[in-house]
Amino acid sequence: MSKNNGIFSGSSPLLLMLGLAPALGSTAFAETALAMGIVTFIVLAVTGLALLLLRAVPETGKVVLTILIAAALTTVADYVLTAKFAELRDAMGIYLPLAAVSSVILLRAGKSSEESSAASVFVRGTGTGILFIIALFAIGSVREILSVGTWFGLQVMPEGYEMNYAMMTAPGALLAAGFLAAVLNVRACRGTSDDGKKEGES
Amino acid sequence: MNYLILAVDAALISNVAISYFLGLSPLPELWEKRKENMFSALALILVMTLSGLFCSLVWQNVLVPQGAEKLSTIVFAVIILLVSFIISLLLRKQTGASLGQWFSRSAVSSVVLGVVLITAQKGYGVLTSTFYAFFAALGYLFVVTMLAAIEERMEYNDVPGSFRGMPILLVTAGLMAVAFHGIEVLG
After folding, report:
1. Bridge partners, residue A150, by sequence
2. Which helix (H) or strand (E) holds A183?
3. Among candidates B25, B73, B165 on the partner chain, residue whose Cβ is nearest the Cβ of A71
4. Which of A174-183, B153-162, B171-180 has the lowest mean pLDDT?
5. Which of A153-162, A182-191, B130-139, B155-164 has the lowest mean pLDDT?
6. Residue B133: its pLDDT value, please?
7. What is the DSSP string of B89-138?
8. Mutating which of A94, A147, A180, A199 best tests the B interface, going by the most B Cβ atoms within 10 A?
9. Cβ-nearest to B114 among A79, A94, A196
10. Under 8 Å between Cβ of B19 and A94
11. Scanning every residue of chain B, which has its alpha carbon at the shortest distance from the alpha carbon of A74?
12. Residue A4 reports pLDDT greater than 60
């Protein structure tokens, strides 16, 4: 894990993609993707704050606690969404519970709660969470526009646009995520020329 | 339910990594330590099969009769934690591998939670769920092995700088998903 210090500092694209993977299933439409992003952000934020209070707990216990807190929060989110936005909840399917996993991965990979001060952890966590929402929303938008030609239900593509089945299903999500990760990587590559190479070798 | 078709469905058509995007997170770690991989793979199969068994038992006998389906996330999380803790204890006795790291890796993995949620959602019985979880684990390991092999060969390819690492792997997985769609007619 020692070499992760470089890659996983702050909100690097790789870290973001790791947390993003379990949430990809909810990105067929911009609306569900946005909802998933917000739920994950809230779960991430509250779990992170709870962990800050539980600094003294040993490492293995922390894993268990992180998972349990995140799972409990996701259950609460499930109840709230079912009560208020039942249709949206149905569209999210099994991916809503997986918001717990996303936030646990982001928290574990960031793994900053031991070394740095509470304020910097908070800033970094918020940054990651906001980037996460933007990333999910971007993937959802691209997929919805390219697959059915709408955005939030509004027609974007010209009349007679044929439905693109590939973007609607699994390949589209993976391809869109791959291209988004590449876009996010551009900045990292420009900074130091062999940065990208290092990530490729891991 | 034809078990052969169910096996193909669990392992390939509804592959957890390719169709449900689960378990892609620990990919970079998976091929870092190849020697440990054999045991990790076996342990993952065990964890997934046992979690599938226990979760579906609880789902069928406790959660559904009580009308508490919404609590499945936290109940399944507790079961998976227990199962992976016991397996990691056994693993440590056999190999001396570090307990904490493996435990956190398997417990955090979205594959296990994802598979038990899928079987619960599809309404499979206890036996079918266990069977499905076992083949889902095999299918997951198959895809991860293939991706690891592809990644190894791509080291010599001229991949554009920004696509190195995770991005090109995701694109590769996307192209694999297209191929896997070809066998969908079986299901």
Report:
1. A155
2. helix A170-191
3. B73
4. B153-162
5. A182-191
6. 94
7. HHHHHHH---HHHHHHHHHH-HHHHHHHHHHHHHT--HHHHHHHHHHHHH
8. A94
9. A94
10. no
11. B73
12. no
pTM for the complete prediction? 0.83
Tokens describing residue A65: 């606690």
Helix (H, G, I), strand (E, B) or coil at B1: coil
The one-letter code for the residue type at A133 is I
* Residue numbers of A between 61 and 100 with CB closer than 8 Å to B: 63-64, 67-68, 71-72, 74-75, 78-79, 82, 93-94, 97-98, 100
Which of B25, B81, B102 would you mutate first to test chain A, the one with the most A CBs within 10 A?
B25
> Any chain B CB within 8 A of the CB of A172?
yes
DSSP A87-142: HHHHHHGGGTTTHHHHHHHHHHHH--TTTS-HHHHHHHHHHHHHHHHHHHHHHHHH
Predicted local confidence at residue B67, as pLDDT: 87
Amino acid at A135: A
Q: What is the ipTM of this complex?
A: 0.81
Above 90 in pLDDT, residue A189? Answer: no
Q: Does B84 touch chain A (CB under 8 A)?
A: no
The radius of gyration computed from the CA coordinates of chain A, to the nearest angstrom, equals 18
- Which range, of A119-123, A194-198, B121-125, averages the lowest pLDDT? A194-198
* Cα A40 from Cα B43, distance rounded (Å): 29
The separation between CA A142 and the C-alpha centre of its own chain, rounded to angstroms, equals 16
What is the distance between the alpha carbons of residues A99 and A71, in angstroms, rounded to a whole number?
8
Model confidence at B176: pLDDT above 70: yes
Number of domains in chain A: 1
Closest residue in B to A202 (Cα) is: B28
- More confident of the two residues A50 and B135: B135
Is the Cβ of A120 closer than 8 Å to some Cβ of chain B? no
Instruction: Determine the structural domain holding residue A22 and report its residue range.
Output: 4-201
Collapsing DSSP to helix, strand or coil, B13 comes out as: helix
Greater pLDDT, B41 or A195: B41
